[in-house]
Write a structure and sequence with these properties.
This is Ubiquitin carboxyl-terminal hydrolase. Belongs to the peptidase C19 family. Its EC number is 3.4.19.12. GO terms for molecular function: cysteine-type deubiquitinase activity; zinc ion binding. This protein is α+β, with helices and mostly antiparallel strands. Among the domains are: 145 residues, Zinc/RING finger domain, C3HC4 (zinc finger) (Herpes Virus-1, 2-Layer Sandwich); 184 residues, Alpha-Beta Complex (Cathepsin B, Chain A), CATH 3.90.70. The chain is built from 22 helices and 26 strands. Strands 13, 17, 21, 22, 23, 24, 25 and 26 form an 8-stranded mixed beta sheet that branches. A 5-stranded antiparallel beta sheet has the order 2-1-3-4-5. Strand 24 and strand 25 form a beta hairpin. Helix 4 crosses helix 13 and helix 10 crosses helix 12.
């Protein structure tokens, strides 16, 4: 007690506003369940593992900690097969009605043990202890009772998360017109009024018509008659028959809002048509259930996860898995891939101790600290050890659970702060943007992906040329389905499939035949020149046609290739192309090298006067924006379709929605200047926030006129804002164009909104599969079914 008395002034009682890190160490993945437990400072409330507490003590002088150690004990659970199988009804993991990651596993109860520890000698006082000073007892009890900082961050991020069932109330729900046309809907025997469909039927709540729904990507579903009816009548709400339950719930779709919605007045709206929901039983599959089923109709699930046979697990440094924290597999696969690359290994593992030692402020809020923590967790081998003797053969390794990292990088982001499934390409771009902001381009490991794209335009009238360059980190490639090398085989399969469905049957997943595409066909689609209409030629001061050719002006150390598998179907449903692309193990992209201006070429002159901006059809612009498309993309669509109407502009958007410049400020082709000209709207927006025009211009120049990145640049380059000199142009690593495949990330499911990601990485000349917390030797790496590929320069 005397030892404790000397430190009473450095003990605080945490309030509700204090962050208490008691779930895991802020510098490592030690937690109360690890052998040495976790130590929580009774002053800063920072949680520390045994490997980090001495350094923290020497740096801060804080000596008193609450030591938390947790033991788990197996408890009896319901025997397998006892009771009905739990039905999955939500597109989420670890929530009621969703996928239960612990289904079928052993159940445990937990017991926590507490003690007070005083450094530097780790003197221990047991808890509870009525002889402790009042402030010590109050501090310890508050640490125990308060929710952890990690849990609070997760709850904050989850507010408003869509999990497959939570829907907004329709704007039509409270004033929906219902016609008195004498119709009464029978409880059974429904059929589409325009075809013979007897399933996937929708009751229009305004006029009582019963029509079939949309056709799904695989040919099942309906014939779009309900949608066509809305386009004629404008009656907005329809409920899917067979999904209505006695509690007044059902699948309600709003055609005007283009989404599944909530209708709190559904009971009254159904009663208008003589439907007493007390007599109804749910018989048809809900939209959530249908999407879940579609996700598993393809054999890609088994192929990508290599479930055909048992896989040999791997343990040790570099073979640590990551727990799926509710649809976090996109994060897991990206981070496993990045920590295969020396640039990330060297900085966030090799220099981890330096990063930890130099941290100021809250370590859980420090981007570089949390990356170093993740790097050490994945690469040290501390959290990847074989199970003890006698463990079940199928026991899953625990892996690490990077909650702090996920909360930090998702903070404030409308998508990555949630538990929704995300696109790995978008997440990688987000992460590299954060890297650039937090490293200020000093030893930024993300630079290993950066390359320069060269665009060459040739005026059809004057034959003069113009060159533009931009920076990219991912090479997106379209998949030309018409280049399939097995068209006859695919056609025969589709015929067999149609015949089977006509007889109410379905072909086995193992019999699926996918279009096979050679990778170089995808590469050709990138290198082919395209005709640009309405190109402003400064040589003739008029709009002409021009030919555009795209090449790479530099070759990065690591080339990331994205196959553009995700697209919008004609009815706006997001789908994924189910194709097989023959990706090479070794790749030579030397023919893609841009040559730059040639001596015999004459360059287009700089415009003496900036040409007037094109006139956009405001009605079409407004309708496209109402659909949710970015304004700059809408301008592009209208311009490139020559103001020819909504349908043409919409088709253009669907074709170009994955373009890297889709949301960039629109500049009419040919009017770009080699001298930087800030976008006027972006400039005004930044100036309105209190920055000078000079500061705003400098930020926009450093970020290619991207206002969001410009704001990030301003806050991370405060010391450069008033420097007269312009920001240095970005530098690009360059070298030979010969590469080898070292990793790929694959997606299972019908769209980026649902499904699962796994990573395959080449380590020590052996392919390894990283499937969340499971790490094993890959027997048959499915290289042809990947979504994003990483090539390393040879």
């Amino acid at each position: 007690m005397e030892l404790l008395a000397a430190h009473l002034k450095s003990i605080r009682i945490p309030s509700a506003t204090d962050k208490v890190y008691k779930d895991e160490c802020v510098f490592s993945f030690d937690n109360p369940e690890t052998d040495t437990g976790i130590y929580v400072s009774l002053f800063s409330f920072i949680g520390l593992g045994r490997d980090h507490i001495q350094r923290y003590f020497k740096k801060t002088g804080l000596a008193v900690y609450l030591h938390i150690r947790r033991e788990r004990h197996e408890v009896s659970s319901q025997p397998q097969g006892d009771g009905p199988e739990k039905k999955i009804t939500r597109l989420a993991i670890g929530v009621e009605g969703g996928f239960d990651p612990d289904s079928g596993k052993k159940r445990f109860e937990y017991e926590d043990f507490y003690s007070i520890v005083i450094l530097p000698d780790f003197a221990t006082i047991e808890w509870p202890n009525e002889n402790l000073p009042v402030i010590v007892r109050a501090s310890v009890q508050a640490v125990i009772d308060l929710p952890s900082a990690t849990k609070l961050a997760e709850l904050e991020a989850l507010s408003g998360t869509w999990d497959g069932e939570v829907r907004v109330v329709s704007k039509h729900a409270h004033n929906l017109p219902q016609l008195d046309n004498g119709r009464k809907i029978p409880p059974t025997g429904w059929k589409c009024e325009k075809c013979d469909k007897t399933d996937n039927l929708w009751l229009n709540l305004t006029d009582g018509s019963i029509l079939c729904g949309r056709k799904f990507y695989d040919g099942t579903g309906g014939n779009n008659h309900a949608m066509e009816h809305y386009q004629v009548t404008g009656h907005p709400l329809a409920v899917k028959l067979g999904t209505i339950s006695k509690d007044g719930k059902g699948d309600v779709f709003s055609y005007s809002e283009d989404d599944m919605v909530e209708d709190p007045n559904l009971i009254q709206h159904l009663a208008h048509w003589g439907i007493n929901i007390a007599n109804l039983e749910k018989t048809d599959k809900s939209m959530v259930e249908l999407e879940l089923e579609l996700n598993q109709k393809s054999n890609e699930w088994a192929a990508l996860q290599e479930t055909a046979g048992p896989l040999k697990p791997l343990y040790g440094p570099g073979y640590t898995g990551m727990t799926n924290m509710g649809n976090s597999c996109y994060l897991n696969s990206v981070m496993q891939t990045l920590f295969r690359i020396p640039d990330f290994i060297n900085k966030y593992f090799g220099e981890a101790d330096r990063i930890f030692a130099n941290v100021t402020g809250d370590p859980a809020e420090d981007f570089n600290v949390q990356l170093a923590k993740l790097g050490h967790g994945l690469l040290s081998g501390k959290y990847s050890v074989p199970p003890p003797p006698g463990s079940p053969v199928d026991a899953d390794p625990p892996g690490i659970c990077p909650r702090m990292f996920k909360n930090l990088i998702g903070k404030g982001h409308p998508e990555f702060s949630t538990k929704r499934q995300q696109d790995v390409q978008e997440f990688l771009l987000h992460l590299l943007s954060l890297l650039e902001r937090n490293t200020k381009n000093q030893n930024n490991p993300g630079d290993c992906f950066k390359f320069k794209v060269e665009e060459r335009f040739q005026c059809s009238t004057s034959k003069k040329v113009k060159y533009l360059t931009r920076s990219e980190v991912i090479l997106p490639l379209s998949i030309p389905l018409d280049a399939a090398i097995n068209k006859d085989e695919v056609a025969a399969y589709e015929a067999r499939k149609a015949e089977a469905e006509a007889h109410g049957k379905r072909l086995e997943p193992d019999s699926i035949v996918r279009p096979r595409i050679r990778f170089f066909s995808c590469l050709e689609s990138f290198t082919q020149s395209e005709v640009i209409n309405n190109f402003y030629s400064t040589a003739v001061s008029n709009n002409v046609t021009a030919r555009k050719t795209t090449r790479l002006a530099s070759f990065p150390d690591y080339l990331v290739i994205q196959l553009k598998k995700f697209m919008l179907r004609e009815d706006w449903v997001p789908i994924k192309l189910d194709v097989s692309v023959e990706m090479p193990d070794n790749l030579d992209i030397s023919p893609l090298r841009g040559a730059g201006p040639q001596p015999e070429e004459e360059l287009l002159p700089e415009p003496e006067v900036q040409p007037p901006m094109p006139v956009f059809d405001q009605n079409v612009l407004s309708q496209l924006a109402d659909m949710g498309f970015p304004l700059e993309a809408c301008k592009r669509a209208i311009f490139h379709t020559g103001n020819s109407g909504l349908e043409e502009a919409t088709a253009w958007i669907m074709e170009h929605i994955a373009d890297s410049d889709f949301t960039d400020p629109f500049v009419p082709p040919g009017t770009e200047s080699s001298q930087f000209v800030p976008n006027s709207e972006s400039l005004d927006m930044i100036v309105s926030m209190g920055f000078t025009p000079q500061q705003a211009t400098k930020a926009l120049k450093a970020t290619d006129n991207n206002v969001e990145r410009a704001m990030d640049w301003i806050f991370s380059h405060q010391d450069e804002l008033d420097n007269v000199a312009s920001p240095a142009p970005p530098s690009f690593r360059d070298g030979e164009g010969k590469y080898k495949l070292i990793g790929f990330i694959s997606h299972m499911g019908t769209s980026t909104m649902v499904g699962h990601y796994v990573a395959h990485l080449l380590k020590n000349d052996q392919w390894v599969i990283f499937n969340d917390n499971k790490v094993a030797i890959s027997e048959h790496p499915p290289k042809d079914l990947g979504y994003m590929y990483v090539y390393e320069r040879i």
